Here is the input.
Amino acid sequence: MKIAVCIKRTPDSESRFKIAASGAAIDETGLKFDIDDFAGYAVEAALQLNEKAGGGETVVIALGPDNVQESLRKAMSMGADRAVHLKADASPPDGIAVAKALAAELKGGGYDLVLFGKHAFDTSAGVVGTATAELLGVPCVTAASQLSVVGGKVIARRELEGAAEMVECPLPAVVTIDEGVARPRYPSLKGIMAAKKKPLESKSAQLGPIRVTASKAELPPDRPAGRILGEGIAAIPELVRLLQTEAKVI
Amino acid sequence: MANVLVFAETRNGEVRKIGLEVVTAGRKLADASGGGEVHALLAGPVGIGSHAAVLGAHGADVVIVVESADYTQFARESLAATVADRVRAGGYRAVLLGFSAQGRDLGPRVAARLDAPITTDVTDFSVSGDSISVKHPGYANKVNMTLVITGSPVVISVRPAAFTATESPKAGRVETAQAAAPTGATVKVTEVKEGAKGRPDLGEASIIISGGRGLKAAENFKLIEDLADAFGNAAVGATRAVTDDGWRPHSDQIGQTGRQVSPQLYVAVGISGAIQHLAGMRSSRTIVAINKDKEAPIFKVADYGIVGDVLEVIPALTAAVTEARKGH
Ligand SMILES: Cc1cc2nc3c(=O)[nH]c(=O)nc-3n(C[C@H](O)[C@H](O)[C@H](O)COP(=O)(O)OP(=O)(O)OC[C@H]3O[C@@H](n4cnc5c(N)ncnc54)[C@H](O)[C@@H]3O)c2cc1C
Ligand SMILES: Nc1ncnc2c1ncn2[C@@H]1O[C@H](COP(=O)(O)O)[C@@H](O)[C@H]1O
Here is the structure.
């Protein structure tokens, strides 16, 4: 299959964040960046689908400034065959604008399947994949927790509140990947060497008008320091008393 | 003055709690935009229209009932097309949905169809002239963002439980509309697997008992279930370590890449408190942790901690809670 995976470069999720002087963004100095978590799962899912099929091509696409090429190289070191960099000053918080630029690139690319993360760590929005599918006019399974492709059909599971649905749709299709599908492999040394020679094409992104912008970024208030009531079952009466009198949940 | 269209989500022929919360949020948005009307789209299988009154009671001026045999299941493309058609026909300022499994799926579809800007998982908003400012926890709840969304119409999805469904009786005049037929290939539901009965959803539960690797074995989740039963209507959650090992389904996972919850009480049992787990539960009102390692990071966020072996502490806690709740 010809599979495209759209990946975003985001700060490592273990980072401690500070707010930038502008007050409207995080301070990126000193932060580690990587492929966003769900998009990393999507890269792995694509590689596994093509490995299972015994062939095909996996193309990774990222929109953003030049530093997104690091993420594209990493995906190629995991096994993706080639990469496309859509140049923009930044990936804006306007998911529709990003989707338009990605759809323009994907359209006519002859992809059987296009994978996205369920949502990106930084925006935590969950817009781009589904919106891109709509713009391409292909069916979209959102937030798949299991995924397979059998006989030209996508078969997937989606978690609902207190239930799950099994769904299917024909290819070509878009799927956004949730927890459960795959965990990204670590690039091998051989993979890292090979990635240096794989093709990476760079062109400018067609974002269109930006209608969602960030005006403020704030850190949530710290929780008051925790307290340890005691050890073992001896602490239970005090806990139950506090749950009744202070927390008022019993 | 501007009218707002809200998607009053249903499942299995019932209006979901988030559906009413979205009506309340829509009321707030319409009132803040100079007193427009709230029109609630009530789509579902034949008979769903019988629920129109509850939407009127929560502030819908108009309830647009769309009944279709196709809506016994989540017919995403048809629903998105129906919402988009209504927005085009009705000239709405905004479309509101819930940030639920359905709303997460539909919101971007509707926005793309209308070429409208969208913001998701919104906890609050304010209107100023041509733009709407929304509060949205980004970076897996680690940074609270304010986003400004300009243009009309806009699509906004609201975080479950961020708005409390409130009665605010309006006419709730019923109109009917046709379900739009999807064009092109669609996603078909082949099966719906209902989860464990009798437990609330993690997003709606006021008490969550959550277990980690400290429970040692899948079968020890029985202790968690028992404690949840002792509290009454509690939900059961888990860490990724546990869902990865298959002790619990992925749908139970709480954290950055799982569910984000903020119940009144969160009891973390044998959970270390990794930053990705905290991202999903640190806004809980009261946090209790039981862990044998007094240095475990979970104790930094726990209001009340007990250092001890969960296999010993949990059965005793279950008995004590049962005792304390006698007569409830
Ligand atoms: C990209 C990414 C995303 C992630 N997303 C999530 C997520 O969404 N949710 C999530 O939970 N994790 C997530 N993780 C994983 C996370 O980093 C931790 O690995 C995980 O939360 C650990 O789960 P745990 O606390 O059950 O296990 P452990 O970290 O192994 O902790 C077990 C705890 O149990 C205690 N213990 C052991 N025996 C006993 C006993 N008998 N009595 C009492 N206490 C005992 C130990 O002291 C320890 O503190 C993610 C990781 C990555 C890299
Ligand atoms: N700038 C980008 N470049 C490539 N893919 C992106 C970009 N932004 C978002 N995506 C993809 O869309 C998914 C959802 O992003 P979001 O809608 O921002 O939550 C991500 O997991 C990526 O797969």
Q: What stands out?
A: Chain B touches chain A through 103 residues (CB under 8 Å).
